[in-house]
Amino acid sequence: MSSTNRTPGVWSGLLPNLMAGSLVTLVTLSYAISYAALIFSGPELQPHLTAGVHSALMAAWIVGLVVALGSSFHFAVAGPDSNATAILAVMAAGVAARLAQHSGQRASLAPTVLVMLAGSAVLGGLLVYVIGALRRGRLIRFLPYPVVGGFLAGTGYLIIIGAFKVLTGCALTLETILAPPEIPPVAWAVAAFVALCLLIIPRYVKHYLVMPVVLVAGVALFYVGLHFSGLGVETAREKSLLLQPLPPGNLAMPPLFARAQLDLVRWEALFPEWQNFLAMVIVVIITILLNATGLDLATQYDVDFDRELRVNGLAGIFSGVCGGITGYISISRSLLNFKAGACSRAAGIIMAALCLGATFLFTPAVAYFPRPVLAGVLLYLGLSMLREWIWDAFFKLPLIEYVLVAGMLLLIAGQGMISGVAFGLVVATAFFAYSYSQTSCIKHCFSSSTHFSNKERALEQTVLLREKGRAARALALQGYIFFGTSSAIVETCRALVEKEQARFLLLDFRLVQGLDASAVLSFNKLEQICTAHEARLLLSALSPEVQAVLEQTKFLSKRGVKVFADMDHGLEWVEDNLLYEVAQASCPPAVPAAAAPGLADAALGSMILAEVGLRRILSSQFTAQALDVLITYCETRKLEDGAALFQRGDPGDSLYFIERGEFSVLMRLDGGQTKRLRTFGPGTIVGEMGLYSKQPRSADVVACGSCRVRKLSAGQLAQLEREHPEVAIEFHTFVIRLMSSRLAAANEEIRGLL
Asked: Helices in 74-135 by DSSP H: which ranges?
């Protein structure tokens, strides 16, 4: 059932919501404090951890409240998250390193980092909101899957480094691995206990209480360890095993925005972090959309991606304005809230209220939360990401995609997040371009001997086209054409022109989504090949975007290139030229002197037939005596351009031999428009289906230019059958042969398209 089908009241089921909200509050506070410790790790930043915890707690209740009120999911829980925090930690470390070079700027460290965190939340939230307002949420589907995996694996590595810093106060290097810092064994034991329990137990016990129970057990184990090791609380605090005491917050105004604090901010130390900031924004957008997708699949609630971006963007803006860090919807905490029985938005509101109390009322209690438990939570998050994207992915991903994920991880570990993600995008793009270039952009390739236009021709002309049609080839192109695929098109066409002596080459772009300028260079080469071999290059069904590219590169202005509205008109033009060549070779005197190759735009084959009468056209289909009799039973009609031979709904009581000119079969569309279905030329018949089936006409048939037809009505046909049965047999045989030819042509076209 989707969320649109059930809209629970905000305060319905207060008791289940209270229990669920309290449960996720414990987890959210643990995460918030852990992320603050991650950001303010290292010797320069650790003394300012209390301010960082306050900033993280502000984000916990502000982001949680905004998302709980506006998300697509009534059970949504939001707050600081690991993916963005890992990059914020890198940014904070960079700012601290710059300021540490100048001893006189050490007092500016905390205000500068806090402004960086709040400003990142505001600017990042604004960009996220704009993308949601522009309805671009579904663009997440275009991000290569291995790039997402490599980014998440790299994020896991950064979180593990942060966990080591939180636990030891030192960076994770080869030296610190070989000679670990001296900290009490209870710290190592508690961190390992929490991380291993969270990694192992959920694989066998699927219960929402696992994480809260493990956290409580970790805290209890820590204090038990302190007791048996003879360490007191103050000694543990001196050894940085506990957080420093936090005074209750000021409800009037966060101290971050006091004028005295802003004057200490070193703005020049923030600007070099713009690349990491952009990476964080990308991370936030991707994570929001991935989390929303995961919640959609896990709970079968409909999700509005653009709404999620707008709501989470506003949450980030409000958090930053109030001095908080970046935060957004969390899939793990939202699912925990959902499974714990949250039946309305009240659970998320209760969570925000409890986090608000932790921020401003009972903040001093946070000082008794053990740092090793926080380090264990971070270690669990990092290891779970690496397990999913390095171990599990090895058995799920193709080798080349897995290598990309592993390569991104190594590059992120050695060069940083920006280098790793940029490398992944470049390599994934190259893989895509190579893979796409292996897919043929030629959907169909056929000749005019098997694939005809919608212009119905005399049987003799159809036979000639079957014989001579190999000289004309049509290629239906598809997809996006770029340098990787255009060269294959050129080589295919080169073979048709050079080896098979094709003299007409028609490229249809109806299924082409676009092409780039590099593809035009290949088409220029194709035009040169066609010119060298005296072949005509024809294009059809150009979309406005494709036509704009070809016009901009001056390709369409080339003398040897001709453009048609669609493939049907292009094929008709080719057929007329083929018939003209045959007619010119067989009976030159019948062709007007002006009908030279330069006038090939006219329907030349039809023009030749227009110079002779019906008797000449049908002489090969009837005996001379039968043709004389048949013509005497026909009524001659002349029609001017645009005149209707018959209209849809008229009685089907006659057929027409077309003696001169052409007729188009038109289908009426909504809005008074029409669509051409087929064209009939001299030597063909029209209306025979109505005559034989006795059904009303199904379409309009309109004259194209000055035309002349011979009408054979149902009454005249019946009289012919009574008085001259042998002529009637020849007539029916002619109709059967004509309809069989049409059916055979249709079958050939179908086979050519398979």
From this structure: 82-100, 109-133
